[in-house]
Amino acid sequence: MSSKVIDLRSDTVTRPTAAMYAAMASAEVGDDVYGEDPTVNRLEQRAAEVFGREAAIFVPTGTMGNQIAIRLHTQHGQEVICESRSHVLDWEMAMLSAFSGCMPRTVAGDRGVLSWESIRKAISPKIYYRASTGLISLENTHNMAGGTVTPLPVLREIWQGAREAGLPVHLDGARVFNAATALGVSVAELTSGFDTVMFCLSKGLGAPVGSILVGSRAAIDRARIFRKALGGGMRQAGILAAAGLIALEEMPSRLGEDHANARLLAEAIAQCPAAEIDLTAVQTNIVIFSLKNNGDAAGFVAKLKAKSILSSAIGPHHVRLVTHYDANREDCDACAVALAELLR
């Protein structure tokens, strides 16, 4: 293996920037459970401003932010409508049921994108002997669909339909800044119709730890109760929030570089006879492709690793690559060459 490892398993593997390290070292801190950490307070205030909301809460993980939101909007025994490959369903340890006492009602989207018509059909009828629908949960970008983006007109139709049906809508916006970059709109506009939005600081934005949940003042006040219940009440968390502030302010503007690098990889893969890829689904920083003739994804990932490139097998025949700021253009060029060699 070469001396440098190119890690494309996820955009969660990024290391803090020099500015983040410096901010963390000099962060002003206090006890956040008492609401006394000034750096956390600044991060929450700024996140609320960026998203055009009344309030925000800093949480350790995106999973915690999503699960707090589900608990806010639902009652035990209700259903949550979500996409059939959504993160809240497949990657959050059944907490939708364990913590909120709800059952998922899954709907298959077109490349992970749900329409209002498909959601409307899944809403439970208002009869007492059926579990009622408590929440609609969307994901933008959609991780397991390959980083696909839900367009703003589709969202507006969902928001209107949900309002008419009297249902709240939550966004798992772990990579919502990637979605906004791809669409050329602000995150405030792209998320304006959601009751709550969770976004990650620790993915494309590059912070070492943390996510944010934004919403109304009343919702975020209640969210603090559920954050504490889940063990998310941190103390001198300003050390982490300092990096989060830099992630929020400085990193969204460079996400287009990651998208361009993902397109480079996708187009290289598309030229290879042993692979199959839907180029129209490569819209942000995630590349998912399949190996033809039932190729062994785990074996292919091992071969890439032998070339100092880390990737993920996300099924028997599917491989995922995720670009980020720690993998520059030169790294992605090298990866494209390695992919072409292995996929001849």
What does this structure look like?
By secondary structure, the chain is of the alpha/beta class. It folds into 2 domains: 6-13 and 254-343, Aspartate Aminotransferase, domain 1 (Alpha-Beta Complex), CATH 3.90.1150.10; 18-251, Type I PLP-dependent aspartate aminotransferase-like (Major domain) (Aspartate Aminotransferase, domain 2), CATH 3.40.640.10. It contains 14 helices and 13 strands. The chain has helices at residues 18-25, 38-50, 62-73, 87-90, 95-98, 116-122, 152-165, 176-183, 187-190, 217-229, 238-250, 255-270, 297-306, 329-342; strands spanning 6-7, 55-59, 79-83, 103-107, 133-139, 169-172, 196-200, 211-215, 275-276, 286-291, 309-310, 312-313, 318-322. It has a 7-stranded mixed β-sheet, with helices on both faces. This is Threonine aldolase. It comes from Granulicella mallensis. The modification N6-(pyridoxal phosphate)lysine is found at residue 203. GO terms for molecular function: L-allo-threonine aldolase activity.
Short description:
It contains 14 helices and 13 strands. It has 344 residues and is an alpha/beta fold. It has 2 domains: 98 residues, Aspartate Aminotransferase, domain 1, CATH 3.90.1150.10; 234 residues, Aspartate Aminotransferase, domain 2.
Number of helices: 14
Element order: H for helix, E for strand: EHHEHEHHEHEHEHHEEHHHEEHEEEH
User: How are the strands of the biggest sheet laid out side by side?
Assistant: 2-8-7-6-5-3-4
What structural category arises from helix and sheet content?
A: alpha/beta
Modified residues (N6-(pyridoxal phosphate)lysine): 203
Protein name: Threonine aldolase
GO molecular function: L-allo-threonine aldolase activity
Keywords: Lyase, Pyridoxal phosphate
